[in-house]
Amino acid sequence: MEIKVFPLGEMAANAYLLSSGGEAVVIDPADEGGFLAEKILQKNLQLKYILATHGHFDHLLGLLELKLAFKNIPFLMSGKDVPILRRHMPTAAHFLGRKVDPAPLPDAFFSDGEIINVGEELLKVITTPGHTPGSVCFSGDGIIFTGDTIFAEGAVGRTEFLGSSRQELEESIKNKLLGLPPETVVYPGHGPETTIGEFKESFKA
Fold first, then answer.
1. Own/partner pairs, 121-126, CB within 8 angstroms, 24+ separation
2. Which domain holds residue 89?
3. Model pTM above 0.70
4. Please, are residues 188 and 146 in contact by the beta-carbon 8 Å criterion?
5. What pLDDT is stored for residue 13 in this prediction?
6. Rounded to whole angstroms, how far apart are CA atoms 199 and 154?
7. Among residues 144, 148, 129, which one has the least CA distance to residue 178?
8. Cα–Cα distance between 144 and 11 in angstroms, integer?
9. Residues of the chain scoring pLDDT < 70
10. Domains: count for the chain
């Protein structure tokens, strides 16, 4: 699988473009949906899905533009984060001080353990509530996309927001992530890559 990461927007949220066998998915379109659309067209890829690790605005600012560029491409996320998505515009205005595009509602919802095909590769949905009620990770062969659940240097997602839970976050990390092979490469929602082993060494519950 080819993985391209693009830190986009004022909050430098990582947008991921994954491709295999001519097919592609975007994980967390962040900002600048037109930029992502251009990258997909340049590579002559068939976009299959737009996936969200969670519903926070900084990871979805480019969603509408990407949806308009690729009509009928399904946007998938957890149904538990729809209330957060519905607050997309006022929340973004509060943090960014500017008006943003509305965020389309999902076309379908994830279930825990669901398998998503990208060409010859598979991504497994792992529900990891805590940062938000509907936070999920996407696990592939030796890789995992964690959104704002875990970051490099043992950092974890913030839990002071409405609907967040530090206890749930720690349980998700301990029960769903720390048991992965230590060499598993972690692609987070912000910042550089790490591995499960490196994260585990620095993580303090």
1. 121/1, 121/18, 121/20, 123/18, 123/25, 123/51, 126/176, 126/177
2. 2-202
3. yes
4. yes
5. 97
6. 5
7. 144
8. 21
9. none
10. 1
